[in-house]
Amino acid sequence: MTKLAFITDLHFGRQTAGAAQALLDDLRQQKPDLILIGGDVTQRGLGYQYRECQKFLAELPAPWLSVIGNHDVPAWNLLERFTMPYRAYQKFVTRELNPTFVNDTIAVQGINSARRFMRDWAWEQGEISGWQIEMAQEFFAAHSDKFKILMVHHPLTHPPDQPTKILVRNRDNALRGFVAAGVDMICTGHLHRTSVRDVASLIPDHTKPLWALMGGTALCDRLRGERNSYWEIMLAGAEPQFTRRELVDGRFL
Questions:
Q1: pLDDT at residue 125, as a whole number
Q2: Can you say whether residue 221 is alpha, beta or left, with left for phi > 0 and alpha for psi between -120 and 50 degrees?
Q3: How many domains does the chain have?
């Protein structure tokens, strides 16, 4: 059995009061084997926000894997945004922009969908490139016997109850490529909306389950009608088991 925690959209610099400590306390109690972090670890990519995030990461009670989000690219320093968009993230969080993790049961590929510039100035959107699709295919091909997890900040599919305009660009090619690679689960953030569903029916002639797991915001006060939350994932048996843990009266339950 493998237990995972999927936390995303931490937005250090705009946290719900007490949420960070409550999340750390709950993760210590739940004891996940691996913590997946789905991007937007800061609100505006500022130094003090990254330092707060770095302190939080140092206190996590398990190994972790993180991808960058669009909020982690400098918003106001345009020179840095266009010339060194990932410098602060790589300094304070991790050098790896497309990180991987493998153990006896799982193989995880993280993908950087944040870009320094998007067409039409739609900076909140992201993109997955052709070489990133090929990179993921090669990685998963080397770990075909594992439960295969793809993590990217921007969603590839719509939430089940409300379409969104900010799906990742090149999503159709990416989705087909990841399905061809045998991906079992795709973890995304960005929307501050939680959902989990099998989206295999979106892919012609694909019958193997493909779990689309969208995380809400673990810490940010921009809640969009939901509580702060994160996902606990149990991998044991035929299908993963998903539990949403929510912040209620200062504790995640």
A1: 81
A2: alpha
A3: 1
